[in-house]
From TrEMBL:
Coiled-coil intervals: none
Keyword entries, A-Z: Disulfide bond, Glycoprotein, Immunoglobulin domain, Signal
UniProt-listed SUPFAM superfamilies: Immunoglobulin (SSF48726)
PANTHER family: CARCINOEMBRYONIC ANTIGEN-RELATED CELL ADHESION MOLECULE 20-LIKE-RELATED, CARCINOEMBRYONIC ANTIGEN-RELATED CELL ADHESION MOLECULE 8
CDD domains: Ig
Top-rank taxon: Eukaryota
Name this polypeptide is given: Ig-like domain-containing protein
Organism: Hucho hucho (huchen)
Length: 360
């Protein structure tokens, strides 16, 4: 297109799209379809008025202030390399190429200098611990020229949802209220045309205890048998546990209560209480009933066999009291006081018309 004073704009002499450069780096303004003539004058200017370089046939190059050590001009194409970029190099660039005896061609483009992104971080507010049911804000920031941010959670793109709000510039992610499912690895990716950076943050949601109960535990055992009661609770961090037996606290903080050799006194009501030291919550389980029963034997009324059964009872820890149950009739015998007369007492307690009795 011909303009006044013999100037015209060269079609595609410089790229239509803006150029991007990194702070401290370099960029090349590459001309396209330059005049084929060898003898020509090339002028580069910045923001229309600031001279960068002028090259004329047979004359030394003329440099604008501050450009002599920073530019290189390609004599055949008129392309320009600009080095050691600074932020103030952002702006409009124009080249005018005038062949000897020909019309001038002019092209324009723009340059945006970006500071590379560095030091990316995700900062939670408030500081941990983060507790279920409360609010948390994650702030993604970095040094440099930030054009866009994107959020991901556990490798999946994250967008606003029922309890998630993301600011317009995507700098902050607000979760209200925080749920257990919000725990995971958050990633913020920051991008500009010359660099990118990522920041990660692992969000731990503290909650509980919940679903506290005594599970997989026996309700009835034989005396002398080993038993274990197990308390379960859903909690982050892991809960501490206390046990109660018939209203009396059992020493220890383990989720399991084990006794190697049960006694009759172990019968009764058990509860466990789970405590989360971070959330401050404390939940008690429902009552678990445990019954400790004696071993059952059936013998005839032979005196020797009766004494042998008593010996077995003593071995099982029944030294103090033996309960004899026969056809609904109960006799209590103190072995220590009645050991010498035990056989006689047992025989007298059983009617001849029955063939046997039970020992508990």
């Amino acid at each position: 297109t011909m303009l006044s004073h013999g100037f015209c704009y060269g079609s595609g002499l410089l790229p239509d799209t803006p150029l991007n450069g990194a702070l401290g780096g370099s960029v090349t303004f590459t001309t396209t379809n330059p005049p084929a003539q060898t003898e020509k004058t090339v002028d580069w200017t910045f923001n229309r008025t600031i001279a960068i370089i002028r090259r004329m046939p047979g004359v030394s190059d003329l440099f604008g202030s501050g450009y002599e050590e920073r530019v290189t001009l390609d004599n055949s194409t008129g392309s320009l390399q600009l080095r050691n970029l600074v932020l103030r190099d952002t702006g409009q660039y124009r080249v005018t190429i005038t062949p000897v005896g020909g019309n001038s061609l002019t092209g324009n483009t723009t340059l945006k200098v970006h500071e590379p992104i560095s030091g990316a971080t995700i900062t939670p507010t408030p500081n941990p611990p983060i507790i279920k049911g409360r609010n948390v804000t994650l702030t993604c920031d970095a040094s440099g020229s930030i054009i866009t941010r994107d959020w991901m959670k556990d490798g999946q793109h994250l967008s606003a949802g029922v309890n998630i709000t993301i600011s317009k510039d995507k700098k902050t992610l607000f979760i209200s209220p925080v749920n257990k499912g919000d725990a995971g690895k958050y990633l913020c990716k920051l991008i500009n045309p010359v660099s990118s950076a990522e920041a990660e943050y692992s969000l731990t949601v503290n909650y509980g205890p919940e679903k506290v109960g005594i599970i997989n535990s026996p309700n009835e055992i034989e005396v002398g048998q080993k038993f274990t009661l197990t308390c379960s609770a859903d909690s982050i961090p892991t809960a501490n546990y206390t046990w109660m037996h018939n209203g009396t606290e059992i020493p220890g903080q383990s989720p399991e209560f084990t006794k190697e050799k049960s006694e009759y006194s172990d019968s009764g009501n058990y509860t466990c209480t789970a405590t989360n030291d971070v959330t401050g919550n404390k939940i008690e389980s429902l009552v678990h009933k445990l019954s400790v029963k004696g071993k059952v034997s059936r013998v005839c009324r032979d005196n020797t066999k009766i004494v042998n059964i008593v010996d077995q009872a003593v071995d099982c820890g029944l030294r103090n009291v033996v309960t004899l149950l026969f056809n609904g009739c109960v006799k209590l015998l103190d072995i220590d006081r009645n050991w010498n007369t035990l056989s006689y007492t047992l025989i007298q307690s059983i009617s001849n018309r029955f063939s046997g009795w039970h020992v508990w």
